[in-house]
Amino acid sequence: GVRGMVKPMQLGHTNIRVKDLGLSERFYTQALGLNVVSRRENGVNLSAREHSQELVLREIGPRDKEAEVKSVGTNHLAWEMASFDDLQAICHQLMSTGIKLTRIRSVSYAVGVYFSDPDGNSNEVYFEDVEAFRRGPEEGEYHRKLEGVSV
Asked: How many CA atoms lie within 13 A of 121 on its CB side?
C-alpha cells in the first residue's frame, strides 16, 4: 500500500446472492459451524464470532427468474474501518481520486459507504460500533453523520 493512506483494518464481511436461502444457510451452519446472528425477509447474517456478520446470504427473489443464473455470486466486499473518523477519511480519500461513491447506508450501530471497482464489483467501507450492536439494534440511523461525503 501507499504510505500515509488510510486503510481498512480487515475484510469485514462478504455478501453473496443465493438461489435457495435455506440450503445455503444449512451449508454454512453445518459445514462451517457458523452461527445465525440475525434474519431478514430474504436473507440471513452468519458469523463465526460475536460480530454482527461475516457472511451475509441474500436470496434472489422470484421476480428475478430471468436474471437468476447471472445474479448469483458476490454482491459486495465490505472493508471494516477502525473508527468512524477513519471511515470519513477514507471516503474523502476515495472521492479525491475520482472514485464515485454510490450509496450511504446508516443503521443504529453502523455506517457503510459503497463504491465500485473498475470491473463494476461493489465494495463497501464501513464502521461498526460493536458495543452499540451488543446493546441491540435500534430504530434509526447512526448518531454521527459523514461530513462532506456525497453520493
From this structure: 11
Give the phi and the psi of residue 78 in degrees, each rounded to 5. Answer: -115, 120
Q: How far apart, in whole angstroms, are the C-alpha atoms of residue 28 and residue 107?
A: 26
So what's the pLDDT on residue 128?
94
| Residue in this structure with the C-alpha cell 477502525, named with its chain if needed | 82
Helix/strand/coil (H/E/C) assignment for every residue in 41-85: CCEEEEECCCCCCCEEEEECCHHHCCCHHHHCEEEEEEEECCCHH
**CA-to-CA separations, 83 to 79, 129, 142, in angstroms, rounded:** 12, 8, 13
pLDDT digits (tens, 9 = 90+) for 133-148: 888 878 999 999 999 9
Domain's final residue, options 48, 74, 100: 74
Query: What is the rounded distance in angstroms from the CA atom of residue 111 to the CA atom of residue 142?
Result: 7
Q: How much is the mean pLDDT over the chain? A: 88
pLDDT tens figures, 16-37 = 988 889 999 988 888 778 899 9
Q: Domain range for residue 47?
A: 9-74
Which of 22, 57, 74 finishes a domain?
74
- Location of C-alpha cell 481520486: 97
If you ran DSSP here, which 8-state letter would residue 22 be given? H
